[in-house]
Amino acid sequence: MRIRLLAFVSFAAISFAALALSPAHAQHAAGGGHISGPNGGVVEDIGPFHAEVVARDGEIVVYLFDGKMRVADTAGAKARATIQASGKTATVDLAPAAPNVLKATGAFAAGKGAKMVIFLTMPGQKMVQGRFANPG
Question: Which domain holds residue 15?
């Protein structure tokens, strides 16, 4: 019985150490709960897609990826962002700008601390949404 308990405790300690030292866990912990994407933005799920949002005042760029982080074609996509920042709410339409990019520019705040909801409709699919917070 004592050997089984010792084996279990050892297994649990090794499992915890492996999790704590894994790159994904380290990246998630370092970013305050956010995972950074290849373009320096915050990555969250939008339906079956992963979206990386890079935002600053006056510009939002969304990089869209499939479930395996491969480029997802945005041709024909329709998207809208609702942004809350500096006590104001703005809604902007995002337009396809490159193979996996949706972009909006305008007079809106989207800097550090901004909260955004992205609504995405891909051709032939239902609308999906994702929530983002800009860590700045």
Answer: 1-30
Please tell me the total count of domains within the chain.
Answer: 2
What is the rounded CA–CA span in Å between residue 100 and residue 131? 19
Q: Closest Cα to residue 39, out of 68, 61, 67?
A: 61
Query: Ramachandran region of residue 39, left (φ > 0), alpha (ψ -120 to 50) or beta?
Result: alpha
Which amino acid would we find at residue 17?
A: A
| 18 and 56 fall within a common domain | no
Q: Please say whether the beta carbons of 101 and 51 come within 8 A.
A: no
> What does the pLDDT look like over 73-95, one tens digit per residue?
999 999 999 999 989 999 999 99
> How far apart, in whole angstroms, are the C-alpha atoms of residue 9 and residue 21?
18
The two structure tokens encoding residue 46: 């939008």
User: Both 25 and 56 in a single domain?
Assistant: no
105 and 47 fall within a common domain? yes
Based on the domain organization, do 62 and 10 belong to the same domain? no
Q: How many CB atoms lie within 10 A of CB 34?
A: 17
| Global confidence as pTM | 0.74
